[in-house]
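ugh ok fine here u go
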Amino acid sequence: MRKLTLGLAQMTMSEGADANLDHAIELIEKASAGGAEVVCLPELFTTRYFAQYPGEEQDERGLACLDTIPGKATKALAAVARKRRIALIGGSIYESAGGCTFNTSTIFSNKGKLLGKYRKTHIPQDQYYFEKEYFEPGDTGFAVFETDQAKIAALICYDQWYPEAARCCALLGADVIFYPTAIGTVRGIEQSEGNWHRAWENVMRGHAIANSLVVAGVNRAGVEDRMRFWGGSFVIDAFGRTLKRAGSREEVVICDIDLDHGKEISEGWRFLRNRRPECYGKIVEPLRR
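structure:
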């Protein structure tokens, strides 16, 4: 068994970007002290969730947390990764680059080196998730980052509904996919389709099984204006078993995983080896309905 210990920082955000960054560092250090070798923060961890408002209603919260890469957040995250000797997925930040803004995750080695970044590919636009008015679609493509501990990938929130994204990361060799997330219920919006929370976890359970890898969802917690983020961060193993699940409040989740388990499933069930790529052309065609 190749054991790896994950730390999920399910965080509650306050108003100030600097205060949130400082608090994130505290949670990272708490996870490290609990034995975590790889730690992940939530989506947009330096700010309260400003994209619940249309762009024309944007207040100073979004503008106040705009950052560059490298910048204030990446400097602090690199320092704590180096200090604690952990690999780190820096949730995501509101990135300003080349006149555009992105929702961007950064990945650090246990020596504090920035291994790379991933910009959110799929951008939602619906009731109280007005992200297309803030973020450009990501242009980095999907990537897997090799740390001393494992090959890891970061996808961001709405990416979790797309099996293609998880499959691409699996084909690139990921052992673990982390999903930094900001999701919950919205006051006044009925869950008419069914239970949002259950669907959120179940779709990622399918990604774990279909791709023979570990999936970790790292959500925020707390009430922010009209939104109640339900927490519920979790780790699911390569055959769909929930290893750990957080409650609804801020907490640090520590979870041991077996990296060999996914390899065994991949060899035994051969989901990837028995693919028929020549049959999948319809996937990359534009939607016609």
